[in-house]
Amino acid sequence: MIKSAYLTFVFLVLSRFFVYAQDRVPSWGGGNDTRDLSFGFVFQNINSDFKIIKNPNWRAPFYDADLGRNATDSLRSMSSNSSPGFAVGFITRYNLTEHLELRTTPTLVFSDKSVQYNYATEAQNANRPVSTTSVDIPLDIKIKSDRLGDFRFYLIGGVKYSMAISKKPVVKDFAPVDRPLQIMRNFGSYEAGIGCDIYFEYFKFSPEIKISNSFADVLYHENTPYSNPISKLFLHAISFSIYFE
């Protein structure tokens, strides 16, 4: 539903500017394209989830050595639903050529993810949220089309470094079944997307859709009923961004 809304919004924006591009005197756009180096800011809506790679024995009950017995029944399923978040940040861009641009957009990200566990005994079913506040530092290459009136289409892609700034919960005194699911504090991702630059007289407005996926396993592995069934955990995200330059 959210993805369809994003695509509909972009389609309407593209349609409007393709219709009127030929009849308008091109706007200045704040002069951003005339400078090698310029700055701006960004707002992002993020929907993220986990791609779960299961261990071969992921269904096995969890044995708690302290209790001397199984703390859970056998596991029936694991899943991760898409969860919303948002981010704010700043843009620094450098023109390499007329159609090629290097940019970085450090952002402060507030995002929630979760994994749902369904057991043979339904009373044991659990939802383990993973709430993080992080700083994302991407380095992207932006490939721009020729300008058509007040509109320019572009493709963007690159790599991103994510660093958590929220504290890990203190869990050493918790029983394994009460411990949260935790992810690594630092990890890298690759990302790619599409967008359009829309020029106004004093600024440039750019809606953009982008996907990102972590390069490697982001799970912080512990001996708990929520970590043991998982071999690898990859973070997947779709973001809708609005840039102002």
UniProtKB/TrEMBL annotation:
A Pfam family: OMP_b-brl_2
InterPro entries with a match to the protein in the record: Beta-barrel_OMP_2 (IPR025665)
Taxonomy, superkingdom: Bacteria
Domain Outer membrane protein beta-barrel: 78-218
Protein name, UniProt field: Outer membrane beta-barrel protein
